Amino acid sequence: MSHPAPPRPTGVPTARRPELPPVHGAVICLAAPCLVISPEHGQLTGHGIEGVYRSGRRLLSRCVLRVGGRDPVAVQGRSLEADRAAFTATVRTGADPGPDPDIGVERVRHADGTERITLRSFAARPVHLPVEILLGTDLAELAALAAGLSGPELPAGVHAAGLRWSTGDAQAVTAAEPPPDDAVASAGMLRWQLALEPGEARVIELRTTPDRVTRAPVGRVANPLADARAEGDDPRAAAWFRTSVDDLGALLQRDPVAPGDSFAVAGVPWRLGLAPAESLWAARMALPLGTGLAAATLRVLARTQVQGTGPDAGKIPGPLRGAGPQLPPACTGTEATLAFPAVLAEARLWGLPEDELARLLPVAERCLAWLRGAQGPDGFLADPVPGPRRCETQAHAHRAAVLGAELLDGSGRPGAGEWRERAAALRESFRAAFWIDGPDGGRPASALHPDGRPLPRLTGAAVHLLDTGLLGGGGIAPGLLDRTRAEQLARLFGAPAMDCGWGLRSMALKEPGHNPYGHRSGAVRAYESAVAVSGLARAGFGKEAAGLLRGLLDAAEAFEYRLPEMFAAEQRTAGSFPVPHPAACRPAAVSAAAGIHVLTALAGIRPDAPAGTVALVPVPGAPLGEIRFSGLRVSGEPFAVRISRLGLGMVEEAADALQLGG
């Protein structure tokens, strides 16, 4: 049965937001809270949001190199690791006849504000070169730049072996080694006279800091995930896994309230801070690499939980997030509150220490108490209140109820029976109200409006209906859909209307308002695609899971294994490529963690650390051939697993007390 498109809900903001500067072509170096955004040619010209940043402040916006009075000809810019990039250029001085360049220039730029410039002579005779570096900054905040509010460049002052800029509340210093022969503050210029013999190389190092005394950046977080590795028949899997681990590690930032705890910031460059839902989902997807990140993120969010006895008591606050043209913005705090008990329950199965569990369990109970009060008489949760009852919000609430019951049972706390009953009632009411029957088998509504009308859009948010979570004993939590409806949803996800060949569209191709660049209306969102792969695999739909997995891996390769949070989703054809979204964060926490989540889903690891068991349920058919994971952690100990070309799983390393289950 069909339904007319509902009117746009009231409360949807209509004010025009500032247009974000495009960043899809930028080369980004990140080691939170340090960040460098460079154009592909490597010259920082002061345009847009280019620059060296520390904790959201632009310390340097202009760094233009001139050699022999010329701008070097850029030939390549590339990322080396999450926190480093290299830019190669050449200069033709005319010392030798012919068209060949005779000076090579390599600039290696680090997220911490260090740049190492190497000039190498290929000339057949000695050359004498003036080298100039033009520097400048406005000391602007990244948030202001995103809103198009960059300020004028500040006057520079000579400081020791470099230049200094300052305002009332900030300053930056760029120092050079070796010291320049001349520093011209009025022009923001450092100058050297270099003599190079044939084949000789000279190095100039710049270090930009917010301090008068140049020093290494503070506040950095060592990557606790760095030991994890993947290797196998398809070398792209290893590259994607490695990049995902590095990027997620580079996104880690210390909590200023408790510096011993770190969390993954949402994404670069626009969301370089705590985003409760994204940070928690990223930690959940990284659980195969250990429970440390999940525990720290849960502790960070626990400190923000609303106390007292009001209607928001127990909720974790979070900002609104745009939901596309069909629905008003959703509250990320609602999503994080529902995720908290679920992530804690799964972290317990992966081996969260008992003292951490005891510390965080009361917070999870308060989250469940908030959910009890927030559910309407029909058991549904409106977001915002009053507002639409979204499909994915009901899935999050159901997962919180089921895994919350598991958590309470496993911890010897009362209340598990109530939450199992609530979950069963929600399943019944969801199937009656949200499922739209049709001759093709039907589909879930993306939302119910306050008056009960369904919004019959097929969107990527429906992946959460299959994301049921782990239960103790190696089991899988029941889903909101029965088996027949789950099979229909799997068919819909596997069809071209949703699977574009590079991943899952955020809205089906034929839906009104479809936009291949729309962040909720057609673009591929890496996180949703990853959840679809793992959810389909857990539910037993290996064919559909494998198809989405291969497409997402192909997309990762096209983006040099650093998947943006979203990208355009035109239908894949021979010779086509995925197209970047100009405003997408890259890297982003959930898209970095997606690579870890998708690839480890191949092994189907189902741990139950309290029971001392782990089961393997690999995706049938070994879609990527043989693959091996090492450096994973179950029960706090190293864990390695191999999946053969026949799809058989073998544990190669595990804690002594851990037994392989069925």
Offer a quick outline of the entry.
The protein is α+β, with helices and mostly antiparallel strands and 662 residues long. Among the domains are: 1-11 and 277-456, Glycosyltransferase; 34-209, Beta-galactosidase, Chain A, domain 5.
Sheet/helix structural class? alpha+beta
CATH class wording of the domain at 1-11 and 277-456: Mainly Alpha
| CATH fold field value of the domain at 1-11 and 277-456 | Glycosyltransferase
Note the gap between the termini: 43 Å
State the shape: elongated
By CATH, the architecture of the domain at 1-11 and 277-456 is named Alpha/alpha barrel
Roughly how many Å is the radius of gyration?
27 Å
- Tell me the fraction of residues in β-strands, as a range: 15-25%
Query: What integer is the average pLDDT?
Result: 93
What low-confidence regions span 5 or more consecutive residues with pLDDT below 50? 1-15, 213-218
Tell me the total number of β-strands: 36
Question: If helices are DSSP runs of H or I spanning 4 or more residues, what is the number of helices?
Answer: 12
User: How would you sum up the major sheet?
Assistant: 8 strands, antiparallel
Order of neighbouring strands in the sheet with most strands: 7-8-9-10-17-14-13-12
Q: Approximately how much helix is present in the residues?
A: 25-40%
